[in-house]
Design goal:
By secondary structure, the chain is of the alpha+beta class. It contains two helices and five strands; from the N terminus they run ααβββββ.
Length: about 130
């Protein structure tokens, strides 16, 4: 999906760049090569910024690990960095004791003693019961 949006952005950027209006040359002045090069560099820089922003925001952020249940909260221990996150957001369908991949983002924790918070957007995969 990200490649389709990047392709669309590139097509639009190039279309606008190639639609530069042409002016009549009544005074005999000719556009210099420096001006043309400047326009090309500017358009290339704009396209590069658009591509970088599109790629950066299209990344799906996920955490995979075992879901644990405490008294009034659920946590997930990330398999990659061994960090424990307290879960918030859309926790429907999350089952304690299961290994799951959760799509979302890190959020700031409210207290200094609390673990970092993972704001869940959706459950990507449910792998079943965690292995000890």
């Amino acid at each position: 999906m990200a490649s389709k949006s990047v392709s669309g952005v590139l097509i639009l950027a190039l279309s606008f760049a190639l639609c530069i209006p042409v002016q009549a040359q009544s005074s005999g002045k000719i556009v210099s090569n420096g001006t043309i090069a400047g326009v090309i560099v500017g358009v290339a820089a704009g396209v590069a910024v658009i591509v970088i922003v599109a790629v950066h925001y299209s990344k799906k952020r996920t955490v995979t690990g075992c879901i644990n249940s405490a008294a009034d909260r659920m946590t997930v221990s990330d398999e990659k960095d061994r960090q424990v996150y307290e879960l918030s957001g859309d926790t429907t369908g999350i089952k304690p004791g299961d290994r799951m991949t959760l799509q979302g983002k890190k959020a700031k924790s409210t207290g200094s003693t609390k673990p970092p918070t993972w704001e869940v957007k959706k459950v990507s995969e449910d792998f079943g019961v965690c292995r000890p």
